[in-house]
Amino acid sequence: MSASGVKKLGKGEILFREGDSSDAMYVIKGGRIAITKTKGSGEIVLAELKPGEMLGEMAFFDNKPRSAGAKALQEAEVIALPFSALHAQFKTFPEWLKAMVKTVNSHLRDANQRIKNLEAAQSESEEMFPPHLITRLVAIISLIGFKSGEKTEEGLVIPFHLLRNYCIQIFQQPTNKLDKLMEVLQALKLMKIEDLGEGKKKITLLNHKVMTEFVDWYNKYLFTEEGKRITIEEKELPVLRALLFYGKKQSANDKGKVVVSLTEMQNNSMRDLGYLFSVNDADSLAEKKVVDEKQSGQGGVLSTSFKMEELESTLPFWEIIYTLKKIPGRR
To answer: How many CB atoms lie within 10 A of CB 306?
Structure first.
């Protein structure tokens, strides 16, 4: 427990850390104290307090861990006021005054939480590729494919200057993000970009169909109630790839589904795919009804079944989304 009295701090010395238990508040006698908040691997300074100001007082009423840290920006002195001694004095306050002070403290806590929520929303809005921007940009590419695409053996060649004009002038979207998105589509083998020099490029849509279907699918997904959405997590993408790899070796049954042996996949995945697949890895997909529940056959062999075309269309859509999510936005 903190003892009362003056505490001296050297420059950069920690008074308390975010998450520490709370047992005292402090009045700054000399120097300056920074209130800090952890952000990623570093920290940000929320406020700088000067002599005469108080810190750490909010925990007096609810005994919650420190919501922020405090450290000396220069040599400083603080007066520690232990909660144990303060509680004895607080008991002597009139009930109306105690209620008022507690209410003010509660409102401050709520305000701080609302600020955190606003900061989180602002951070989300500063993503490089917010969801609806993805649909707009891919839709522009798809539209130019329909409007002016020239079929070749390799794919659909679209005029780069027209693509940029539509992006800037008609849809008023940022071309730097269009360029970054096209790099991702090229990495996913959906597009090919050839630099012809002098600001000219040859753009070939290697799979115009997938991009067009992606726009319709993702737009519908975004406007579906969250509780009714089927969301594939990034960690499930290798599972989808494995199921498709082994599913292509099978013929569809009379229900239009392929049956794959999960046991065989577990035994051979490291050799065939370079990563280990477990017989339980598809369980989460079965819960979402993306694949059927696993079945046990002769000799304890486990299997599952699914429609190849559904998984083949689903996988590239989620690969686009998760690849774009990894691109950092503004800092």
So the answer is: 23
